[in-house]
Design goal:
This protein is an alpha/beta fold. It has 17 helices and 14 strands. It is an enzyme of class 4 (lyase). It catalyses: L-threonine = 2-oxobutanoate + NH4(+).
Length: about 425
């Protein structure tokens, strides 16, 4: 199964030597809460604490360090929604190479600023990573700059695979590894490292990829045994919002990875809130998909009964504005933030009654919108929308039942 693959264990071991002194060995963090939930030991591999905030610097540096002197003089070009951009920019700065990086128009400001801070020239182009990639490739063809692909190159895959070597040294008893997958470079590299080492040890270690369900090109591609591009990609996990798998990663993932599963946007939001609250870790949505899969019980749904689980938190470069939205969405998805819309007769005391009911049931109102005029409102009607903090789904249902018991008809808004 390992024969004939484009990247082998020796390639990853060589990449690890090249990366000495360039990257940090990221720590493992034990999750007691998640361990209790699934009845297995769960460790987080914290690549969100890597230099430049994600695993991407590993592959970028390996790819660029192996360029010839003539290639280095021509400079490099890349495209990314953020993490690969920062990895390339940091590697280019360290190696003294000029870098031009294409990023989508809607890229998060912190990722844009960080990329420029590393000294790269940034050009905003396209509405998604695929359009930025196409433009970067055109620039490379026109100028002779070396195109540094974010995932579809042997050196990139080998660099990302060094995470697998570190993980096995830090957590030798691991039996199940989960991580996010976009184009597939990370999953492919880690799979080669872990499956190769497991074969040497005579062990079976499962490797599972996780995608956002609205950006999941791998399940249909694996089912068809061919690359199946998506017509549309829409997810808060911009780091894995890739519409077409990489050719080289696909060859490896098809042979080595045990499964690729998907998680919803709500599950992603809940996972980010969980990581903030329970593990004190800032992780971007793309880095939290593995945690979402574990929280949603997907291991049990797959019929697995692991004892020692590792989840790769691939990055921590999240836009604070997005984080605010995700936290609110995550709280709502967890039943801890409730928004209700109620139609009332316009008479004194109605709002006071509703406030009393909410207060008596120990919920906390954070916003009230009171409207007398609108296209859907009849004369004498009032519409109110109330945001409130609750203690979970059961508590939210108690509040709703109390309102209904007093004759109100609250409609839950998402």
């Amino acid at each position: 199964m390992l024969d004939g693959l484009p990247v082998k264990l020796a390639d990853i071991e060589a990449a690890a030597e090249l990366l000495k002194g360039v990257i940090v060995t990221t720590p493992l963090e034990h999750s007691r809460a998640l361990s209790r939930q699934i009845g297995a030991e769960v460790e987080f591999k914290c690549e969100n604490l890597q230099r430049a905030g994600s695993f991407k610097v590993r592959g970028a540096y390996v790819r660029m360090a192996r360029l010839s002197e003539e290639e280095k003089k021509r400079g490099v070009v890349a495209a990314s929604a953020g993490n690969h951009a920062q990895g390339v920019a940091q590697a280019a700065s360290r190696l003294g190479i000029k870098a031009r990086i294409y990023m989508p128009m809607g890229v998060a400001l912190p990722k844009l600023s960080a990329t420029r801070d590393h000294g790269a020239e940034v050009v905003l182009h396209g509405i998604n990573v695929d359009e930025s990639l196409a433009e970067a490739q055109r620039f490379a063809d026109a100028t002779g700059a070396v195109f540094v692909h974010p995932f579809d190159h042997e050196d990139i895959i080998a660099g990302q695979g060094t995470i697998g070597l570190e993980l096995l040294e830090q957590y030798p008893e691991v039996d199940t590894v989960l991580m996010g997958v976009g184009g597939g470079g990370l999953l492919a590299g880690v799979a080669v490292a872990i499956k190769s080492k497991a074969a040497q040890l005579g062990r079976d270690i499962r490797v599972i990829g996780v995608q956002a369900e609205n950006a999941a090109a791998y399940p249909p591609s694996l089912a068809a045994d061919a690359l199946v591009p998506l017509e549309k990609v829409s997810t808060i996990a911009d780091g894995i919002a890739v519409g077409r798998p990489g050719q080289l990663p696909f060859q490896i993932i098809r042979e080595l990875v045990d499964d690729v599963v998907t998680v919803s946007e709500d599950a992603l939001a809940r996972a980010l809130v969980f990581l903030l609250e329970r593990s004190k870790l800032v992780v971007e949505p793309a880095g939290a998909v593995g945690v979402a899969a574990v929280q949603e019980g997907l291991l049990a749904e797959m019929g697995l009964n692991p004892k020692n689980v590792a989840v790769v938190l691939s990055g921590g470069n999240v836009d604070p504005l997005l984080m605010l939205k995700v936290i609110q969405h995550g709280l709502q998805a967890a039943g801890r933030f409730l928004t209700v819309h109620i139609m009332l007769e316009d008479r004194p005391g109605e709002l006071a009654t509703i406030s009393r009911i909410i207060s008596e049931n120990d919920a906390n109102v954070t916003r009230v919108d009171h409207t007398r005029v609108g296209g859907s409102l009849a004369m004498g009607d009032v519409a109110i929308t109330i945001d409130m903090e609750t203690k979970g789904r059961e508590h939210s249902e108690l509040v709703l039942q109390a309102l209904r018991a007093e004759g109100f008809q609250p409609q839950v808004r998402q």
